[in-house]
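Agenda item 2: zinc ion complex prediction
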Amino acid sequence: MHTDLVAALDIGGTKIAGALVDGQGRILVRAQRPTPAREDGDTVMRAVEQVLGELTGSPLWGRATAVGIGSAGPVDRSAGTVSPVNVPGWRDYPLVGRVRAAAGDLPVELIGDGVAITAAEHWQGAARGHDNALCMVVSTGVGGGLVLGGRLHAGPTGNAGHIGHISVDLDGDLCPCGSHGCVERIASGPNIARRALENGWRPGPDGDTSAAAVAAAARTGDPVAVASFERAAQALAAGIAATATLVEIDIAVIGGGVGKAGDVLFAPLRKALSAYATLSFVRHLTVAPAQMGTDAGLVGAAAAALARRTDAAAAGV
Ligand SMILES: [Zn+2]
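Presented output:
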């Protein structure tokens, strides 16, 4: 019997996706449910179990050897619990135990969603071939993850690389996390749009005040829109340069909605990086847009499950 598949779960505030994934990262079976994010914890868990039920009901399930979960955070990998900000019914929720029970006692690996996307970009995307990389998701929030020495570095709790909450403005605005001047408070999509509006940018006739609309305005040369992206780029560059100086990454991959802004973001980002990443060992640092699409969370969760399986085999477990 082939035992070459892993199950993957991608759990976010709006949807719960599941898949059976092979050793090349191909998705063979899919299942999905909306996240009942406003319901109590057990109701949310039932949606996860429905997704898992579709996977365990597949004729391919017998080939699955591990389960990988990428979840909205914070997660606690060592405790096997999750407390996603957008799912209030789950606080220190014992997700790993519940998933293991629903998956026939297969080993379960839990990581944060930013770490999962990093695993996907390293396996199949823009960070492929890079042994030391920072991958970021810049959208409603700012998350990330690290690859160090060729391996995903999830950290003890599974949150390592959460660059969105590094402070880059010591006396900056209060961040919802409780700190001040976080990268996310400056560079997330809603903050790019907020700053543009505060400084006099006005949306077009469609009334769209998203960061994508600000990006479109910046592309036509609107100076306030350009300035808001430049400020976001500066915050990202400061966070990336700090990370590179600490752990010697050679590439930073940027995904998420804001990462799709193209040159409006990447041109000022490269300029700001040259101002902040100044030491000889970080000057070669490059930035690149993410390559993985909407399946990044699933593919990354699968990568984490495969890595766990490989580690277990190496340890003779
Ligand atoms: Zn913060």
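Discussion summary: The longest helix spans residues 223-247.
Owner for follow-up: CH.
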